[in-house]
Structure formats: structure tokens, C-alpha cells
Amino acid sequence: MTGTERAGDRRVVTAVDRLCTDLAQGLPADARAPFEAVRETLHAPLRLAVVGRVKAGKSTLVNALVGRRVAPTRAGECTRVVTWYTYGSPDRAELHMVDGSTRPLLLEDGAVPADLDVPASDVRRIVVHLQAGSLRDLTLIDTPGLATLTAENEAATRRALLGDGTSTAAAGDADALLFAIREAERQDDFDFLHDFHRASGTLAATAVNALCVLTQADLFGSGDLSGGDPFAVARGVADRIALEHPTDFSAVVPVSGLLAQTARTGAVTETMARHLTALADTDGVLLHLWRQTGPPDGVGESEMAALWDALGPYGVVAGREVAAGGAASLRAWLSSTSGVDAVDAAVREQLLPRAHLIKAIRALSVLSTLLHLLPEPEEARARLEAAHLDPDLHPLRELRALRLLAAHAPDSSLLPRLEAVVDAPEAVAREAGAAGGTDADAATMLRRASAYAVGEAARTVVPTEVEAARVLARSYQLLARHVAGSRR
Ligand SMILES: Nc1nc2c(ncn2[C@@H]2O[C@H](COP(=O)(O)OP(=O)(O)OP(=O)(O)O)[C@@H](O)[C@H]2O)c(=O)[nH]1
Ligand SMILES: [Mg+2]
Known about the structure:
This protein has 488 residues and is α/β, with parallel strands linked by helices. Helix content is 53%, strand content 10%. Bound molecules: guanosine-5'-triphosphate and magnesium ion (MG). Guanosine-5'-triphosphate (GTP) binds at residues 54-60, 73-75, 77-79, 144-145, 215-216, 218-219, 256-258, 312.
């Protein structure tokens, strides 16, 4: 995990926090609430929403990521209410109603009930507090499917993530998206994604805050029947999507939520491994037909059904050999095969290290929708715009320039230098002084690098390079100021 906090990112949060307080200063206490709410989100864990078409396997993946079977899943349209899984003790859940009231929700065997005793349209969200390590630095948001049979379900997701166009909710509740695509992407997937990017602010109109998961990877191709590898087919599709949509996602990861859920929620037992091993000599194609032909000798109908539910056809056929090694081997195989470790890695390497910046981007965007609540909205807008030029907020501009450059001009010579100032500014400053010179010499070196970048901005005609070079020039200048200032 590379989630170490950088001083610059902390300064971004402090600057936006200050801005919230300053803007709301003249308001009476009760009118300050929306601004306070924005401030609070800056200090809360990153909110990652799992979004996608109905039946993409979102809730199954949420269970795998949480490490508990807490979200209801089923073959028919299932999730009807936006549900937050957040860190807290003791384990409990509550309904946040549309009318602003809150009431407790009893978990059934530790899981959210699939059916509520109130109409889903009366509930704004369910919040589930769990003492799960996976939620310490991340709140996961499960959402009703897009493109559903029930327009109301899709509307709930759009409201929660894109906002209802009114006030505080205008940029929605999520900082980042885990976008679930099953089989292949469709145009309406991207329509939604672009709406989300717009809602999360112009600074975020890049792949900064969205990862894509290609779900149900165990069902790709005809792998399980032909003896091929469905995950290899899914990898090919994922690579194509990544290539064709470089600005939409920072990564595209194939995953089988089902295998991951089974591996990570304590569902793999020695009994399961034994039943699976008992199928070792049955022909794979025959196994697929077991519902018609009956289960093979030595395994009962309900046991076979349980294996099928937990592992799917690929998991049953391909997992038999490894199951001979017992539950621990089966669990390890399911976990690594499922691809969920790669999803975790993408979240931890691409989203969490930049959580402060991503949250700050969203907070600025929400702030811009609250200005009408202030006595002098025009003056407040000017202050907000001026804040974008605040040196403390420069990391936001760096991040955006880096993503655009990586997507549109990946061979640019500016890329490694921009990466260096984004990921390790202290090292850049150190290197500038590495020739053994004084701090003043280091500052001079950085100013020279800045002047050189200004020249590069003038020489290139590629728009993303022009912006990157300008951003880099300012980065070097700010670093020079920092080096000179800190050693005085
Ligand atoms: N084989 C296989 N089946 C899966 C996988 N993920 C989910 N499923 C099955 O697909 C069905 C739908 O899964 P859910 O997780 O409920 O899907 P969802 O996207 O949350 O559905 P909605 O909430 O209705 O939009 C369930 O029957 C799951 O068991 C997977 O990776 N592989
Ligand atoms: Mg669901």
C-alpha cells in the first residue's frame, strides 16, 4: 500500500476546510449546516460507490470487498436502496428516510434484509456500520442498478451519485466510482460516467476518480466447457476497454465477485473442499448438465446446488483439483483466481493515496453549488475562483494535468517530470540541491527548471502538453519558494 500521506495533500484539505468556514462565516448557525457538511466530508473516509447496470454483480463484489456477506444478492433485480457500508462499532444499520428522519434497521443474520417493511422510495439511504478492517479508510456505497426494469431504482442511483440538482446533494455523495461492467460496455454506461464526471467538478473530468471492474469474469468465453480460461478472455476485453477509454478509467480490472465473495466471507469449508474433490473423476461437460442428469455419485442434490451457488460452473470444474489440498488451498486459489486482489490493489494504489485530493475536488464542486445560499453570491464565487490559484491547491491542478497527459500524450517527455512533482515533490527538491550546492543554489536550479518548462509550453502545440508544461513551471516555482523559504 502506498497510502502515505503527503504534506501537500494535507495542505489542500486544510485550504478547502478554511474556505468552507470562511464562506459560511457571516451566516446564522443553522444556515451554516450545508457548509459544515462539506467540511466533514473532507475528513471522512473516501466514499467509493459501486455502480453499473442491473445484475452486473455489484452487491456480490461489495460483499467480497467488505469481507462479509452483508449485501443481499440474487438472480432477480435486487438492490433497491443506496446502501453505505461504513466503519463503526457495534455492527448496526439504520434507514435514513427522505423526510430527514432516521430509524433503526435490524440486520438479519448480519445482513441487510432484501425486502424492507417501508417503500424503497421513502428511504434516502441505508447506512450499515461494521467493524470491518476493510472499511477503515473507505466507505463502500452499493447502488441499485442502472438501466433497470424499475425506473425508480435507477433514479435512486442517479440522485445519490449525480445529485438532485437542489443544494447539498448537487454533486452527489460519492467521491469515486468502481464502475461495474458485465460482458461488454454499452453507450449508456459511458453516458452515466460522463454525467458523474461533470457532477464531480471540472477538475475531476478525468480518470482520477473512476476504476472499472469487468465483472463475472468466470463466465467469459466458453472457457469452462472447452477447458479454456475465461479469465484470459476477460483480460483481453478489459485491456481493450482500457485502451479505448483511457480518459474514463485509471484501470480496468477483470474480477469474479462470486469467487471472491466465497473466498473472503468464510464460506470455504473442509466439507466444501471434500464435496468438490468427490467430483474429480466426473467429466466437466457432464457436470454442467447435473441439473438434468442429477448429481454425480457421492454428492447429494442440495450439496451440489450449494457448490454451484458458491462457485459457479467454472469454480466447480476448475476448483476440483486444488480442493484436494483442503479448504485453505481452495480459498487461496479462489482468492487469487477471482482477481479481487487486483481490485484491492487498484483501489489502494490509485485512489487511496490521492484520497485527500479527490475529496477536495468534490468538496470544491459542492461548494460551487452552495453559493446561492450566501448573502453575496457573486463575491463568494470570485473568492472560490481565486482559491483555485491558491498555491496550496496547486496539487489538484497537477493531478488533473498528469491524468490528461498520461491519457493523451503518454510518450511526452513532460510525463516523468510531472509524475515526479506529483508523487515525490520532496525528492525533486532534494535532487535540485544534490550537486552539493547551497539551498539558494537549489532554488535557482528549480527556477531554471521552471523557466525551461515555460519555454516548453510555448514550443508545443499539443493542448495537454501546453497545460502540463504550465503546471510544471508553477510546480517548480512553488518548490523553489518552499526550498528558499524553509531554509531562511
Ligand atoms: N458466475 C458468477 N455469478 C455472479 C458473479 N457475481 C454475481 N453473480 C450472480 O449474479 C446475480 C446478481 O448478482 P448481484 O450481486 O445481486 O448483482 P447486482 O449488480 O448487485 O444486482 P442489482 O442490485 O439488482 O442491480 C446473483 O445471482 C449472483 O450470484 C460472478 O462473478 N460470477
Ligand atoms: Mg445489488
